[in-house]
Design brief:
Layout (H helix, E strand, L loop, with lengths): L2 H4 L2 E7 L5 E4 L2 E4 L8 H11 L8 H6 L1 E3 L5 E11 L2 E14 L12 H4 E2 L2 E2 L2 E5 L5 H14 E2 L2 E2 L3 E5 L20 E5 L3 H11 L4 E4 L5 H12 L3 E7 L3 H5 L2 H8 L5 E6 L6 E7 L12
Helix pairs in contact: 6-7
């Protein structure tokens, strides 16, 4: 593997008894099939991830992932232990998905002018298929809104980071640059986190990722009624796909979001392909260089 390919790795997938799989820009391949990931290596990796103290990561393991220094996330799969129908623990971990978190400073340069008008941030829903750069984008949106730019003062930004992907917190401290006026509620369910931020941090903007539950939508409405802009994301191919979901359809009909952005991978990851206004009418736009 060349050095340029190594620097573009998105995921490293390890499965006991199988060769190592590497994902680069939506293309995957296996390393030397003679080298298989073994059970002993899985145990060593788990010990290193937990610093030899699985108890301290019990809650993260229960959710199926571990966030490590640098904001990288390691997804895990194995034998689930249930307690009254709820996941209590994952043991005998047989699969690891190491997702490489890379911060791209300036990723939101072309997008920010679409979200800010006369100094006011527009509440925005970003619709994106998997691996189209939505988390990278909202991380940089948070950073730029927090720092501010010439003619645009920095905003108080609150990030509700349920999966520790946006700010990549370790022990509550962001590993990514999300700006000097940004507060992060890490590992907290979105709805509860948004309500806590509204009450305690008086944000100008709330940013979160992958909304979709009914309680998320109610929290978003509470924020907007309190005069707080909300920028969030959802998995989907296009606006029509998203509007089939009752929760999102109801939000759209109530005019909660002023902007809808659709992401794609062509000509590069994070490209805005379509934009719609609060009436779901397609907008002409020009992404700044």
């Amino acid at each position: 593997m060349s050095s340029s390919e190594i620097h573009r790795i998105e995921e490293i997938r390890l499965r006991i008894g199988l060769p190592v799989e590497v994902v680069i820009e939506n293309r995957s391949f296996f390393l030397d099939e003679g080298q298989r990931f073994g059970k002993e290596e899985a145990t060593i990796l788990m010990n290193r991830l937990s610093m030899h103290s699985l108890y301290t990561l019990e809650e993260e393991i229960r959710r199926g992932y571990i966030t490590i220094k640098g904001g990288h996330r390691v997804g895990i799969a194995g034998k689930v232990v249930l307690d009254r129908g709820n996941v209590k623990h994952i043991r005998d971990v047989a699969s690891f998905n190491i997702r490489i978190a890379r911060q791209i400073l300036g990723a939101a340069n072309g997008v920010l002018p679409l979200l800010v008008e006369k100094g006011q941030v527009k509440s925005t829903l970003i619709i994106s298929p998997p691996q189209c750069g939505k988390t990278t984008l909202i991380r940089d949106i948070a950073r730029q809104l927090s720092y501010g730019t010439k003619g645009f003062p920095g905003k108080k930004v609150s990030i509700v980071d349920e999966r520790s992907e946006i700010a990549g917190c370790v022990n509550g401290i962001p590993q990514k640059d999300v700006g000097p006026r940004t507060d992060v509620m890490d590992g907290c369910p979105k709805a509860e986190g948004m309500m806590m931020m509204i009450r305690s941090m008086s944000p100008d903007v709330i940013i979160t990722d992958e909304m979709g539950r009914p309680e998320d939508s109610y929290a978003i409405e509470e924020a907007i009624h309190a005069g707080i802009a909300v920028i969030t994301t959802v998995h989907g191919k296009n606006l029509k796909d998203v509007m089939r979901r009752p929760v999102l359809s109801r939000l759209a009909q109530s005019g909660v979001f002023q902007r809808y952005l659709i992401l794609g991978r062509q000509p590069r990851v994070g490209t805005i392909t379509f934009m719609y206004d609060e009436n779901l009418a397609e907008c002409r736009f020009r992404v700044a260089k």
